[in-house]
User: What shape does this take?
Amino acid sequence: MVPNPSNRRWECRAVRLTLRHPWTTAQSTSEYRDTIHVRLTSEGVTGVGEGAPIARYQETAEEGCRMIESLRPFLEGSDPWRHEKLLAEISERVPGQFAAKASIDVALFDWVGRKLGVPLYRLFGLDPDSAPSTSLSIGIDDPGATRQKVLEAEPFPTLKLKMGLRSDEATLAAVRSVTQKPLRVDANEGWRDKETALRKLRWLEKQRVELVEQPMPASMLEETRWLRRRVQIPIFADEAATSPAALPALVGAYDGVNIKLDKCGGIQPALRMIHTARALGLKVMLGCMVSSSVSITAAAHLSPLVDFADLDGNLLISNDPYRGVTVRSGKLVLPPGPGLGVMPLGVS
Ligand code: MG
Assistant: This one.
């Protein structure tokens, strides 16, 4: 047992979230996702946090929990009011593991908000009524299932379609057979040469698609720059936009960036990315991974700062252990409680 004179406690566990529909993108297919859940208890108050490991960066919930466990003496010896310093020290000690870092960061912010008795949006000086609408993501599927998912997504004003496979044309035709609402397309780096990407983007421009995310691999920056000069449709970086420091190089190749707490390491780095992107003249989308309402609500508290929200990860699962942000006619509705404002549902 590590001595813990402060009586401060950090707990971590992996939680298996079941997907409503098997989830296919240009990268992978899955029926469930494991995310990292942490709880910080100190001074009689408990804060909760979550991070969703991203397979592309070789992260798993198991390894993330192991990392947090190894940091436990440091975490339990650190003052959560000094969370800027605490998070900076973790960044120095541990390379990568952004989902695990995000879970710690979110728990710290939830704890601080609960201690102060204010919701996070208020701590950040934001107007909850300015929270944007969120798109709902439709994973790659056969045309019949795609049509069904689009019909189920009726309340959402915008849909985000996963593309980047041979079936792109059939997918879009299936969607357009049942709705004319605005669409966003995420290719997840699926178009591997610039001529293919150019052909796809010119086709998407004719289909009322309002933006396209990561058409080419993140490493193909010059090719993306070439692409951007030839199309009107806004191009957003996701896999290429990993940290504040990654953003300056994206100017001229992308029009905007998709920022995710799980990818950059939590609320604090996400805020830095939002402000860096703004300073560079880039548009900002807040995105997410498949996760529970803890992670999605954390991101939603920042949503009044951004142009586009894609915060639907909790809507894609059938066993959400929490209730937090809700969606009314597509618009994000922030909970008014202190911190994240999430409530456990006792079903995990
Ligand atoms: Mg994406």
Residues 186, 188, 213-214, 238, 258 surround magnesium ion (CB under 6 Å). The chain has two domains: 9-117, 123-344.
